TrEMBL record:
Annotated ABC transmembrane type-1 domain residues: 78-297
Biological-process GO terms, alphabetical: transmembrane transport
Organism classification: Bacteria, Bacillati, Chloroflexota, Chloroflexia, Chloroflexales
Transmembrane segments: 20-49, 82-104, 116-136, 167-190, 227-248, 276-293
Subcellular location: Cell membrane
Cleaved signal peptide residues: none
Family per similarity comment: Belongs to the binding-protein-dependent transport system permease family.
Membrane disposition: Multi-pass membrane protein
Claim: Hydrolase is one of the keywords in the record: no
UniProt name for this protein: ABC transporter permease
Pfam families per UniProt: BPD_transp_1
Species name: Chloroflexus islandicus
């Protein structure tokens, strides 16, 4: 009986060996670049680690300090991150859907051209993108926006747009929305183009008489996987953003912490103060926030 079981197991293994062989490289990459770093960050979050001395276990102290003593995190970083994520995440998501829907109505050639134009900002590196917007919002009279406003006598002196806490977050949101048409946007466009036109014809026979009704009753239900993918990408992109504020203002922390996000807080403690254990605790909190919102997106767009 045991010999027969081993023989059956051996045949099953030979049958599936090729499948495991194809999966193995991706499993190794996943382990090296995702699973192991996440586990290491989780373990380091319970230690004091300055990158020089061995980690020293301190229990929940990092989390207690984060929630009760880190005034910068509670007053600036967390509210900034929530405000940024709420505006950029859903805003970019809705904008991507609307633009994808409009492009889906166009013939193939102009659709391809406009899709490439909209997608290209997302391929631009953060530093290169910041240079373009720094020129627009430069704080001297040569900055395009200041020059335009001065020529109309709307302002009397140049405004330090990128150094002013009053304007920095707004500019960060504008720049991020401008560059948010990434793979989520392409997935939505592909999902819309894949919808069977006969569904719209059947809907018209059933009383669907407007474009709005088509979107609600046909388009969105027919592309829930693409909608979910776009939502996940928007959530992750909104929460992992951080370089844009530093690149625009030229400093970390940003002026008066006006554009300081969780990612900036992690970089500040991890690579400027070398408090790796505390930075790991902040990164775990960020991971939990992303997982929570991804869970909500899954519940919203799950297949019935």
């Amino acid at each position: 009986m045991q010999t027969e079981w081993r023989s059956q197991l051996s045949r099953q293994w030979r049958k599936e060996a090729s499948a495991y062989g194809f999966i193995a490289p991706y499993a190794v990459l996943f382990a090296i670049f995702i699973a192991i770093p996440v586990l290491a960050a989780f373990l380091l979050s319970f230690t004091f680690f300055d990158s020089i001395q061995p980690p020293q276990f301190n229990g929940l102290l990092n989390y207690i300090v984060l929630l009760t003593q880190d005034d910068i995190f509670m007053r600036y970083v967390l509210p900034n991150t929530i405000q940024f994520a709420v505006l950029v995440g859903p805003g970019g998501y809705v904008l991507a859907f609307l633009l994808a829907w409009m492009l889906a109505q166009l013939p193939r050639t102009p659709r391809t051209i406009f899709a490439l134009i909209l997608y290209s900002p997302s391929m631009t590196g953060g530093v290169a993108m910041a240079v373009v917007w720094q020129t627009l919002f430069s704080g001297d009279q040569n900055g395009y926006l200041n020059s335009f406003l001065l020529s109309l006598n709307l302002i009397q002196a140049p405004i330090q747009w990128l150094q002013s806490p009053e304007y920095l977050m707004t500019i960060m949101i504008i720049v991020t929305l401008w560059s948010s048409m990434g793979v989520g946007f392409l997935a939505m466009l592909a999902g819309m183009l894949d919808i069977n036109p006969e569904l719209y014809e059947a809907g018209a026979l059933d009383g669907v008489s407007s474009r709005w009704q088509e979107i609600i009753y046909i388009t969105i239900p027919s592309m829930k996987p693409q909608m979910l993918f776009g939502a996940v990408m928007a959530i992750v992109g909104a929460f992992q953003a951080g370089t844009i504020g530093v690149a625009l203002s030229g400093s970390n922390p940003t002026p008066q912490y006006a554009g300081q996000l969780i990612v900036n807080h992690i970089e500040d403690y991890g690579f400027l103060r070398y408090e790796m254990g505390y930075a790991a605790a902040v990164s775990v909190v960020l991971l939990l926030m992303v997982l929570l919102f991804n869970r909500l997106a899954n519940r919203l767009f799950r297949e019935d």
